[in-house]
Amino acid sequence: MTDKRTFDDRDGWIWLDGKLVPWREAEVHVLTHALHYASSVFEGQRAYGGKIFRLTDHSKRLHKSANILGFELPWSVAEIDAACEQVLEANGLVDAYMRPVAWRGSEQMGVTASAAPPHLAIAAWEWGKYFDPALAAKGLKLDIAHYRRPAPYTAPVHSKAAGLYMICTLARQQAELKGLDDALMFDWRGQVAEATGANAFFVRDGVIHTPTPDCFLDGITRRTVIELAQKRGVEVVERAIWPEELESFEQMFLTGSAAEVTFVGAAGPWNFEVGALSRQLAEDYDDLVNGRLPNR
Question: Which positions are annotated as active-site residues?
């Protein structure tokens, strides 16, 4: 059942600038720089069985994202790791989704933000599957997004920056208005890029193909799934993929911390089967994050 509560009115604790505060008191001012100029970066990560999967990788990426946007977080990676674990424990959560977010505050208003120091908050809540399990089991139906992922010379594309998700929100909203589940995005060149919040993979003749992440995030889940496939002896090819090729692929799936491994049944005019290799990798990923595979 979907949780209908708003995210500002809940019981629990949020870590804010070094201390736990009651959930409803974790507030920022309306003149916060991030609200006006998108000077914000974030992470999405999951805890399974009380352990946050690849936590340090996420904390490192948060630091990197902030640096790309021109600000240095005063909390170390180890301190962020510890804060995430503190939030999980304080809220009594075992299986959860977590959202660390860092931003420029209200100390300065204007395009520049050199006098606005960074802030950091970490929240966690129970959150089931990102996509409806019944729909995902059959394979999602994707729209083709109108907007394209920007070129690396036009935006900080390797930062998990809030501003880069505006076109993702618009693309998914348009898809949902059409009765579809999500959208596949191309990049500025017209090559296949990713979905609105997850990386894309394709299967043909037992080989996995995935777009080179040169203008979008090389996701932590993406890298994990590539490792799982390679451990099974499956060839993974990272390369440019053009839309004209999509009709030749047999399977398609998405990966992300929220999406985990999710099957795709159709993207625009192209149809895919939910095949054995996709199912195997979804099972392997589930086993890994739940501690049923080694090298967690």
Answer: 160
Contact, 51 vs 94, CB < 8 A?
no
CA dihedral 252, 142, 157, 160 (to 10 degrees): -90
> How many CB atoms are closer than 10 A to CB 105?
18
The string of pLDDT tens digits covering residues 216-235 is 999 999 999 999 999 999 99
Question: In whole angstroms, what is the distance from residue 178 CA to residue 196 CA?
Answer: 16
Last residue within a domain, chosen from 109, 125, 141: 125
- Band of residue 293 on the pLDDT scale cut at 50, 70, 90: confident
CA 12, 94, 128, 17 torsion: positive or negative?
A: positive
C-beta separation of 106 from 137 below 8 A:
no
Residues spanned by the domain of 277:
133-289
Structural domains counted in the chain:
2
- What confidence score (pLDDT) does residue 296 get? 43
- 105/163 same-domain check: no
